[in-house]
Amino acid sequence: MSVKAKISRVKRNNQKKNKLIKRGVIKKSQKKGKTPANVPQIPKNVSKEEYSAEESDHGEDMLEMIEEEDLEFLKQAITNKSYNILNRVKYSGPPVNKPKKRKLITDDERLENDYENEIDDMSGKRVKALLPIKTQKGLVYKEIVENILEKEQTEKNENPAETEDDKDSIEEEFSLQETDIDISKPISAAQLLATRSETLRQKKIHIGTLSSGLLENPEEKITNLKTLLNLMDDEIPEVFYTIRKLTIVSLLEVFKDILPDYEIKNLNPEGVKLKKDTLKLQKYEENLLAYYKKFLQKLEKFSFMLVKKKGDTRVLTEEDKKLSELSIQTLCSLLVSHPNFNYSQNIAQVIVPFLNHSRRDLRQGVKQSVITIFKEDKKQEITLKILRLVNNYLKTHTQNVNTEILEILLALNLREVNLDAEKEQNIKNKKMQAKKSRIMQLSKKEKKRKKKLEELEKEMMETRAEENRQIKQTNLTEITKIMFNIYFRILKCSENRKILSVCLEGLTKFAHCINLEYYVDMVNILNKLLHEEWLGYKEQLHCIQTIFILLSGQGEAVNIDPTRFYVNLYRDLLTTHAGRNHDNIFIVLKTLIDSLIKRRKKITNKRIINFVKRLTTLSLQLLHNGSLGCLGMVKVLMQLNRSTDILLDLDNSGGEGQYQPEIHDPEYANASNTALFETSLLSTHYHPVVRKFSRNIASGVPSTGDGSLPLEYGKLTIEQLYENYDISQMAFNPAIPVVKTVITRSRPVNKIFLSSTFSEECRIILKVKKERELFWISS
């Protein structure tokens, strides 16, 4: 098992040198202050300048010894830089005597100089001259053209560990042999764990130091991000999963702290001189944006490990899955904390497909993040981007879709949306302009003055942030169109009950935003859907509720008879009970509020009476919070329509026919010929509030006096009665009092027998039984 560690080039050279000294290949250098014996000594009475002048002739006599043909060859070679030894030689005439200066060249400078010497021009090619060939006709010169870029690429492929990003340090194998552990002997698990813990501790200190320094001074320590990003590519086998997780969490907190709330735009005006501080800030923002982009790319790579395509036979380990989940959570956190920063749309594009992932916990996490974004988005810009991505995704995935991808739409706040507002405003403006043109005819001077006033008014609107409000309204309108486009496509194509249920629930919530011209088509689609056999009861309730919402408000102008929907609702009302589908009662109550209370002026007395009788029957088979909701509905209907008092009369001789509860149409069930006998059963209910409501209804729902409700119960709405007394949290409201223990005193009982013989037999039997019990106890 080996571990990679980074050491500097100087340290590596020293290690190699020490090994060679131990082998005896080279000799150890002399200590400082001692002079080797073979080095000539400078006389004390001679200066260094004179000594160097006497010893060196500067190559003046060398030129006389070189032939003219060789001299021409050397000049040409110097010009073309054909040989590395001649790269730094510049031929410019006779030599000039200059004093020599010794300059120390560091490893980095030598590396840069070698790199500059290898590159000749920007084309990436170099002409290399070969040695000339002497013939009878003279010298024959030959050259070779080398491609430097291909050569560098070959060298990189041969040595992938050495890159340009890391010139001052390289990665080497850090094996157990270099540690204190003796690999010639068996290694225990405790030693391996200790080595791993030590390596992990050092990495934690490194990550913490880099992150804290970056948070203290981001502009000066921005390069720490590069080092942290490189740590995410660390391939140490024992700890690389842990290091990646720690680095991701650290970078998340760093970016959440240093990222601005605005979008960084690359503005590089040409010919404009910027101040030093402005240039510094611009450079910092460019670096921050570049490192942030690299971080997002790495997170995207880790996230999509959970997405398998066709033909993918990878087997993910549990650590890979945890790393992918952490990456997705990090992307969601970045989008929630900085939704208006750069690359927010790219992050949304990555996380939206995970709303339809097979892992439920992953879907729920992304769903909660998107809902938080919808609630906190003030400009509605990122909301519009996410909805467009959801719409595009659902176009290609219509059947196998999870409910989370549609449940996020229920979190939208569309109360201020009116799709007809723009059309109404245009009509109003046209009428106003036509009226003005009829009344007055403006001169040219007045027209110019009017134009200036309009421009001034526009500027004033901008100062009052009126434009931002208009942009928000435009975004909300576009969001509404996309949302209904999604819902209508599902209504026409999908047969998935779960998806359809969420779709109908959304239509129920946002039905007031639908354009008036689509009301008739919408009602016809829902009516057709009600006759489908595969549709469940909950989905039927949503359909009926949506229809009654459409027919209220602006929909009152639409000429549609809702009788068939009342029949459907009345027929299946008793389907809900205290078993598995008790939660449907809340949808039933909301549907009855839209159909009976809000439309009470458009329905007959017979229909209301039959619904009141059916609701009291329904309250017998529900939990106490459902019963309270039904009794609250009955109470409101009896207060709004006094014709229901006939149900409190026990004399049925004056009615028409007999009560027939099996008839589906509430117009012909003849509930007026019966009474609310259910209230006598509900008066003995286990819940005290249900008992009070039943007595109030049996008394004719009086507001004061005998049989009236206490003020704390009388002010509660129907929804509040259902929600406040819900026992899903296992809490009984009101609290059940503790039962007091009562000690009963035994009293003598006189037994009288008609036959004395039978009395004697009983006495003998009891005596024998008692004797047997005493015998078994004693034994």
TrEMBL record:
UniProt organism field: Hypothenemus hampei
Main subcellular localisation: nucleus
Keyword tRNA processing part of the UniProt annotation: no
Coiled coil, from the record: 439-473
Domain Nucleolar complex-associated protein 3 N-terminal: 202-295
Record protein name field: NOC3-like protein
Region span, Disordered: 1-58
Highest taxon listed in the record's lineage: Eukaryota
Gene Ontology CC: one annotated term: nucleolus
One of the Pfam families matching this protein, by short name: NOC3p
SUPFAM superfamilies according to UniProt: ARM repeat
